[in-house]
């Protein structure tokens, strides 16, 4: 199968045209016509075999996850998904793999009416690079630099189960088969919190999605907003599998485990009811886990308000 | 050096903000505000070590080429460069390599006032994925499907010297050191024909950039426009190094050699003077090499109008 037949078969025939995308796959460039008064939110993520996913990973899950981690970045800006490009390096034109990969990817894309508008296909080590485009009304983005002192800090969903699955696969953590299966769904099928991000527009100040671990990701908000924060480390919403682990692991995985793809956001205290209403609207649970403050640095305190120190770090691609 | 220090050092500090990009590197997404009445032209290209460039390639040239091949796609739409994202997979955080790579990339970006607005950095096999954004007035794009029967077919610059260099490196073609050096500059430092693309707006009908070879790339215009074409294969503008080779090689490299990054475009016969004026404005030579016609298929004829048949093919990532 040639490169062009492959693109035709797996990546173009399922695409409906939209007014926003007058020209999609099949030219030197795609054309995108943003609606008047809107900005584009743009993010790119590259997933490398052996680094972001195991060799031999289920292609359908991989198709889902590759797009999900990008959509999660749109969610963290409060943006509505519009379209994406896909650049794919493949060791061989494996049609069964491509069918499953594109099935997983397009199923998630359809849920969010997010259209594949262009791409590139080449031979090489398995690498997936997606660039995603979302629409947002002028000035409404949830930026990392917009947190205010006194803001509540919230997270969506639960934390740490993706890390449980990873630790299970690496035999660093003993999990029952059913626990591993449950945790694995968090690792392999992250749910981008698009509805919540949209519902938080005009309510939340700052937001970020949790990919490298709560501490490391929250520090980006602190740094960009020029503020500090206190986190109640006993109020973190633990995933159901993490709840069964010992406390040291609970802290570590909830605070520094990667791959959760939940939203962490700040909002004024006066908007607590609005935050909870937005969460109900988005059918996404949220938990208040701390507050922003002038005093720089990130403090973790327990239920008795005693300071807790932890030695673990967030994930860094060039330090681990 | 951490992932974030690396990004800070090599990819953010040189960036000036622009009204079009109210938020660049450093958040979940970048924000892009297109000007009223404009569309975005978007293209993505992935370059893989050992496939698109040799292992150990000069990082400065690689930084140039990675962006140049993407800008070339904008040129082929007649779009004005605005911004790009860079996803980079690197075996190690090699600061000397990164300095040179970013030097090469930013030098070309500055020439075209094209801003790095976001990206991703990860550990893995050396892979470079750029997505580029250009601006184009509504309805003015040079699309592959817009050629008309009777249009002249033109190409910019000269053809085949990049392929001469590649054949030289692979010892498939004997070149003098000075010829190899001259040809190599075409392979390593392609010049995206941005000015020509912009000047051809409103004059040309269809355009494509030549990356896989004239025959294969022109066939995309034929296919999308539902037409055929005749090419005068003795009128092709050969690169100065290719001019020194035997005729069989001249035909093969000019018709099927990759990596030229010239524009091939069609325009009405009545606009010949306008095409030449646009080429002068863009300081880019152009050559008329054939014409579009209703009769399907691509015909090559020599100076005596005799049909010529060739066995070579354009490059395909999954057939070579």
Q: Could you characterize the architecture of this molecule?
A:
Two copies of one chain form a homodimer. Chain A has 320 residues and is an alpha+beta fold. Chain A has two domains: 3-137, PurM-like, N-terminal domain (60s Ribosomal Protein L30, Chain: A); 144-307, PurM-like C-terminal domain (Phosphoribosyl-aminoimidazole Synthetase, Chain A, domain 2), CATH 3.90.650.10. The first copy, chain A, is built from nine helices and twelve strands. Chain A has a seven-stranded mixed beta sheet with strand order 7-9-6-10-8-11-12, with helices on both faces. In chain A, strand 3, helix 3 and strand 4 (115-123) form a beta-alpha-beta unit. Chain A is globular and about 65 Å long. The model of chain A has no long low-confidence stretch (mean pLDDT 92). At the A-B interface, helix 1, strand 1, strand 2, helix 2 and strand 3 of A face helix 1, strand 1, strand 2, helix 2 and strand 3 of B. Strand 1 of chain A pairs antiparallel with strand 2 (38-48) of chain B, so a sheet runs across the interface.
The CATH class name of the largest domain in chain A reads: Alpha Beta
State the separation between the terminal residues of chain A, measured CA to CA.
39 Å
Note the run of SSEs of chain A as H and E. Answer: HEEHEHEEEHHHEHEHEHEEE
The 3D shape of chain A can be described as: globular
Mean pLDDT of chain A: 92
Under the CATH scheme, which architecture of the largest domain in chain A would be assigned?
Answer: Alpha-Beta Complex
Q: According to CATH, what is the topology of the largest domain in chain A? A: Phosphoribosyl-aminoimidazole Synthetase, Chain A, domain 2
Strand order of the largest sheet of chain A: 7-9-6-10-8-11-12
Biggest sheet features of chain A: 7 strands, mixed
**Percent range for β-strand residues of chain A:** 15-25%
């Amino acid at each position: 199968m040639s490169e062009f037949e492959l693109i035709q078969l797996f990546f173009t025939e399922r695409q409906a045209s939209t007014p926003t995308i007058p020209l999609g796959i099949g030219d030197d460039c795609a054309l995108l016509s943003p609606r008047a008064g809107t900005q584009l939110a743009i993010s790119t993520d590259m997933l490398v075999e052996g680094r972001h996913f195991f060799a031999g990973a289920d292609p359908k899950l991989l198709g889902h996850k590759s797009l999900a981690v990008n959509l999660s970045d749109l969610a963290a800006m409060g943006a509505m998904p519009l379209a994406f490009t896909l650049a794919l390096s493949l060791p061989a034109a494996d049609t069964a793999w491509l069918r499953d990969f594109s099935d997983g990817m397009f199923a998630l894309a359809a849920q969010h009416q997010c259209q594949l508008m262009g791409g590139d296909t080449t031979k090489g080590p398995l690498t997936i690079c997606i660039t995603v485009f979302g629409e947002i009304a002028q000035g409404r983005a949830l930026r990392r630099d917009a947190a205010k002192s006194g803001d509540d800090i919230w997270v969506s969903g639960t934390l740490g189960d993706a890390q449980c699955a990873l630790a299970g696969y690496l035999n660093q953590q003993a999990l029952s088969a059913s626990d591993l299966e449950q945790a694995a769904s968090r690792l392999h099928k992250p749910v981008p919190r698009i509805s919540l991000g949209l519902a938080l527009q005009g309510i939340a100040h700052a937001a970020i999605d949790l990919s490298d671990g709560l501490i490391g990701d929250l520090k980006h908000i602190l740094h960009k907003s020029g503020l500090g924060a206190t986190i109640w480390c006993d109020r973190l919403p633990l995933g159901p599998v993490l709840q069964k682990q010992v406390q040291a692991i609970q802290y570590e995985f909830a605070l520094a485990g990667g791959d959760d793809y939940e939203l962490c956001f700040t909002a004024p205290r006066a908007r607590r009811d609005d935050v909870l209403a937005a969460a109900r609207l988005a059918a996404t649970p949220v938990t208040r886990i701390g507050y922003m403050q002038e005093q720089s640095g990130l403090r973790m305190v327990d239920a008795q308000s005693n300071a807790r120190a932890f030695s673990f770090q967030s994930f860094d691609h060039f330090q681990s």
